[in-house]
Amino acid sequence: MKPVNYFLFSGLKKLFNQKRFTLPILLSLSITIGLLIGALVIANNNALKPLSGVSKAQNISSVVIDLNMTDTLSFETMTSRADFGQFMRHFDAREQAFVFEKQQSLPQFNGESLDSYVFKAHFAALDIMGTKTIKGSALNERNFESGVWISESLYEKQRQAGNDLLGKTITIGPSAQLVVGIIEDIALPRKLTLASTDTSSNIVNLAVPQVWIFEDFSKIPDSSTDGQMASELSYLYIDTTKVTIPNREDFFKWYLTTVDDSQKMMYEVFLKKPDSNLELSAYREDVMPGAKKMSLFLLLSASLLALIAIVNVTNLFNAYYTARFNEFSVRLIHGARKSVLRRQLMLENTPLMVFSILLAVIIANLFIAFLPLLSLTSLSRNGTMEIDALAITAIIAITLLAFYIGIYLSLSRIKEKALQGYIQSSGKGVSMDYQNPLTKTLVSTQLALTIVFSFAGLAIAYKNYNIAFSDMGYQVEHIHNLELKTDDSDWADSFNKEEQAFYGSDAHQLTSSIVEVIEQSALKVSVISQDYGVLANIYKFYTQLVTKEDGSTQMLSYSPLHLQPGYLEQAGINIIAGKSITTEQYQQNEKVAVVTKNLADAVYPKLSYADIIGKPVNKDSSSIIIGIAENFRRHPSSMSRESAYIFRPDIHITDTLRFTLKTQNGAELNDLLESDLLLSKIQVRHPQIKSLSFKSYQDHVNAATMQQRIIFYTSLILVTFTLLLAVVGISGLTILTTKQKSYELAIRMTQGATRLDLVSLMLKRAVIMLVAGVAVGSVITLWVYDYINLNFNAELPAFNWVALMALILMSSVIYLLSVMLPTWNIVAQNPLSALRRD
User: Fold this and answer.
1) pTM, whole model, 2 decimals?
2) Which of 797, 796, 710, 787 has the alpha carbon at shortest distance from 295?
């Protein structure tokens, strides 16, 4: 038999006959390498893979001003059409900046709706992004008004249906547009909320079918108020290689010159705050917010597990091959070199490597497939996400490296001067287990790493659990937002009459009419607010100078919300003083309000909550406080409850009508929405309503806390596998070394030692490494925790000594059981048989 075939055949036999050696290695390596490669594939998809239709994404950044009104309350400005036009003119960025604008109208061809979205963009957008033209005319400054461009996916879908749209006319709203070109599908910013969800796999595709209209945004007048809804417009994007943005102070000075005089004082106050920022965010980050941070976390977690696995493998190789030192010594005495031995052992372990690689590929695919399920919502995906040739190469390389390290370190312990002694020992009683320095170091290292990684994982899991799963301060289950949109802004504005109180007004009749249709169409649905509630896609904020109880003034920021009878109770908002509005007060249009606790504290800092009831909202207000509500979280991804709210019984009608619904049976409402039955019923009464959208509070929370939930579950996986690897590695090592030392154990039994004495002997040898590992791990944990809190904005919870002690105790118990149980099993098999064999 040829040497290569001999070693391969020997390795194949070892794979099935030496399970004490092969099984721990197979489990350790395949699981951790599979997780690592899965994390690499996800990171590549999130951070490196080119975005569809945006080949120059690395050169593109958004420009936005983040105004900090309080320590926890901020809002973004420079987000309107007028801002964009002024920026392009002032910075001469007509051909180096662009913006997207979502259109409400849906495209049609031959009277049938196209499954697509319509966008308007600045004419220079495609050139800045590097979007390719697939067919037809390429966009330029001279032809951008000649028609529309459609994305490749829409074109191909229609062509398969027998419609070649290139050169054809499609209808968008009241206008007919000629399709003059086909372009790549463009990965869009998440802010536009237009990602396409594949509900079967919980995946969001970044590029969806699109129709593009182009205009010259640089010609938008300074007074333009069109399209200022936050959800309709993207940020302003610039080519950072061609546009130079001045420093923060100079940029703010310029921006103040563009602000209306009526708002200039407010903007001046907030722009002067040191924590108000000029933010430039990479285009990729806007398309896949948080994806880069999540990818780094997944990579770090998987890498740490792989490190422990390599320590495991090295320890197991060390124990296994120490028992074969006599065999290796004979070969070395006869002229073999260590390098040749290493190559032969690599060949011998090839079957084990192949099985490890195959299992790692399976685990990596499972990790990628199940990651969206951990998020409980749709997970952004940049095209396909799969194990490719590069990932397979990485799996093979990491597996080879792990095996080579284990074999190299094991053979490095063979001393040339001690070869004769190894031969004479015949492997009996060789100090191969917990007595040699390499094993001591590796076991102590593994224990230290187990404590450090487990504590870090628990701390991160605890932080993200609080954000993702803790109480919001209001009910999330069974509450939904319903939005109705119209493209007739004049019709919407006609309902806003300052001289009219809300109840009984035209605005109230409009919202009540829609409420009647909703509740008649779905009998198990009740409308608890005729406006948006505490959790919505958009928030209104007001900042005004208020006069406090003592006569002093303070700039106060708050968000107004609609107050109607029963809303606070049904929304699960706790009232700590006073009461909510009654039906009688609501119908009589009494000027009353319920405020949150933090607003009451700000205006009346010296009064008790009971004494604040009956006071005006502030000294200059006609609204009387009738109730004080507990603070609640404004945003699901933040633990802050410092945003102030005022609930009043009035509504301002805009081109988006919002309603807050409470359901007993979500399926009933879903059926109405999917069939467009509810929209058609509303349009019978109000034909100006053009579209309807629906989102549950639970979906809103899931989307906002997706990253926190993934990190939470991944942290638990990290802790679980860290402890599992400790069990597998240490118990595997104990089984090997105890079995190999059966000769020595038999000698001790002939001298009167009991089985319990033999177990105690092994435990005594192991305790030294336990103490060393625990001590080093605890010190490193404390140092790393303090270092991260001092040098990074990690916002970790306070160091929990009880948790550390519990983790040390659990790790110690796992370690001692991993030594004791395998030892007892081996000793129970009667080591005296080793003497009879020899």
Assistant:
1) 0.74
2) 710
